[in-house]
Amino acid sequence: MMDTSIDLGKLIAPLISTRLAVKIVEEKVLESGCTNIIIDFKNVDFISRSFACAIVKMKKNFEEQKRTVNFLNMNKDVEQMIKIAEEHISNPPKKENLSIIEDDNLLKLAKS
């Protein structure tokens, strides 16, 4: 089994705030042809929720292709954001609940 380790902080930046950055990671993984991928967060201070969701989805997609993906060296903030993303992806909000929330927000805005 071939391994590759990707240092996100060096490959992208210490602060990652866009889901588009996942495309760079995907390209690196595909170029390597490896089946065991380590995503190393040791040089990452912050990730946005959009990046977290995108990288969790990438991990899931690669695992469906029989590749192993591990996230290592996450600080507590990055780890928490990954957990939030995993929860969101495994339990997405129901669309009917979103429309109720949107309607409530519209009513609040209209009253102010």
How is this structure best described in words?
- With 112 residues, this protein is of the alpha/beta class.
- The chain has a single domain, classed as Transcription Regulator spoIIAA (2-Layer Sandwich), CATH 3.30.750.
- It has helices at 8-11, 21-32, 49-64, 76-90, 95-111, and strands at 3-7, 15-16, 36-40, 46-47, 68-72.
- The protein has a 3-stranded parallel beta sheet with strand order 1-3-5. A two-stranded parallel ribbon has the order 2-4.
Concise overview:
The termini are far apart. With about 110 residues, the protein is an alpha/beta fold. It has a single domain (about 5-110), classed as Transcription Regulator spoIIAA (2-Layer Sandwich), CATH 3.30.750.
Keywords:
112 residues; alpha/beta; Transcription Regulator spoIIAA; 3-stranded parallel sheet; two-stranded parallel ribbon; 5 helices
Strand order of the largest sheet: 1-3-5
Tell me the CATH architecture: 2-Layer Sandwich
Q: What's the main sheet like?
A: 3 strands, parallel
Counting helices, strands and paired strands, the structural category is alpha/beta
- For this structure, the quaternary state is single chain
Give the overall form. globular
Give the count of structural domains: 1
Q: Using DSSP, what is the number of strands?
A: 5
Number of helices: 5
Assign the CATH topology: Transcription Regulator spoIIAA
Helix content: 55-70%
The N- to C-terminal Cα distance equals: 61 Å
Beta content = 15-25%
Compute the CA-based radius of gyration: 17 Å
Order of helices and strands: EHEHEEHEHH
Poorly predicted spans: none
Mean pLDDT: 87
What is the C-level CATH assignment? Alpha Beta
